[in-house]
Amino acid sequence: MARIDEIESDVFRLSIFSTESGFQYNAFLVRDEEPLLYHTGPKSLFFQFSQAVASLIDVKQLRWISYSHFESDECGALNEWLTIAPQAEAVIGIVGAAVNGEFAIRPIRSLQDNEVFSTGKKSFRYLRTPHLPHGWDAGLLFEETDRILFTSDLFHQNGDVEPVTEASLIDRFKEVLQNSQGPFSNYIPYTMHTEQMLRKLADLEPKTLAVMHGSSYKGDGKSAIEELIKVFQEM
Fold first, then answer.
1. Which of 11, 95, 141, 223 is 20 to 30 A off residue 209, Cα-Cα?
2. Kindly report the CA angle at 24 between 19 and 26, in degrees rounded to 5?
């Protein structure tokens, strides 16, 4: 069973620690008039994640499923979710929908950069971030009501760590990214556009960073992202 923690009002972090990989897989459920799931998790973890969601909402009421980019832990279980939630619709960037959309059993709604959609009380802005964290289809969601940035692989941390922290995530992230012997060393590319995209994310001044692998962060999200820029510059 996934661990469940409410990191903001009606925003739940669902977490499963993998002893094989040595890090957590986190999905996020937004409980609202039209519930949203961010990250499907891989197929192998679908049962545990679906049980966790079912403890919070009627799974059949799930309306939106989103993720950053085409990868097994981001969207591997998408069709399983679409099967048990007949009203659910995947919503991702226009590139992902065009390039990878045929793998889904129902049409995917595509979003333009900075397009906004609502789940009821909460409002989500889609941010196109090609090759950040990786893949030209990559993008992120920013929840504007509570100022939550769903960061995907940014701020990746290893270990079975606490669900949320107010301490800096940078040292943990550097350990993952700069470990030359580790499988995830330099797995987030740094291009001529990376700093510009990160500064745009920082300018959103998020109050919470919802991290896919590791602890989420509450505090000065702008400063945290500016720390991230320095890490990439040192690579």
1. 95
2. 145
